[in-house]
């Protein structure tokens, strides 16, 4: 049913921006299913980040026993960094799968040709450079595990 709504949006030239905070993804199979889901809905622009349960918010209390960093490690609390320890895979594997998903979505799923027409070359290049920068960051975080 959701897929039909996304198709309807496209028929009236509404661009679909998906910003997803992923934590329900807990192993390689979950990442594969997540990529298949994104491919199915085919958003034009996608942002994918690990869930960050900031201190003082309800999710913080729910996950505080699985946090990788203390609440006072301020420089580590960002939307691009894994904060909750994965339950079924290592931190390195999580970053690897996140990087593969990010590259897959930005290079193969997002409608780059349509984006060129709608937003222009400079904006698409900016998104591409952002994908490369994010990938470098994920490689660094993966190696630091």
Structure in words:
This protein has 145 residues and is mainly α. It is 56% helix and 8% strand. It has helices spanning 2-11, 28-41, 58-63, 91-109, 112-119, 121-144; strands at residues 17-22, 45-50. It has a two-stranded parallel sheet with strand order 1-2. α2 (28-41) links the parallel β1 and β2 (45-50). α2 packs parallel to α4 and α4 (91-109) packs antiparallel against α6 (121-144). The radius of gyration is 16 Å and the shape is globular.
Short note summarizing the structure:
With 145 residues, this protein is mainly α.
List the helices and strands and how they pair.
Elements: H1 2-11, E1 17-22, H2 28-41, E2 45-50, H3 58-63, H4 91-109, H5 112-119, H6 121-144
Parallel strand pairs: 1-2
Helix pairs in contact: 2-4, 4-6, 5-6
Descriptors:
globular; 145 residues; two-stranded parallel sheet; mainly alpha; 6 helices
* % residues in beta strands: 5-15%
Class from secondary-structure proportions: mainly alpha
Rg over C-alpha atoms, rounded to the nearest angstrom: 16 Å
Q: What ranges have pLDDT less than 50 throughout 5 or more consecutive residues?
A: none
Distance between the termini: 39 Å
Spatial shape: globular
Order of helices and strands: HEHEHHHH
- Mean pLDDT over all positions: 78
For the largest beta-sheet, the strand count, sense and barrel status come to: 2 strands, parallel
Q: What's the total count of β strands? A: 2
Neighbour order of strands in the largest sheet:
1-2
* Percent of residues in helices: 55-70%
Number of helices, where a helix is a run of at least 4 consecutive DSSP H or I residues: 6
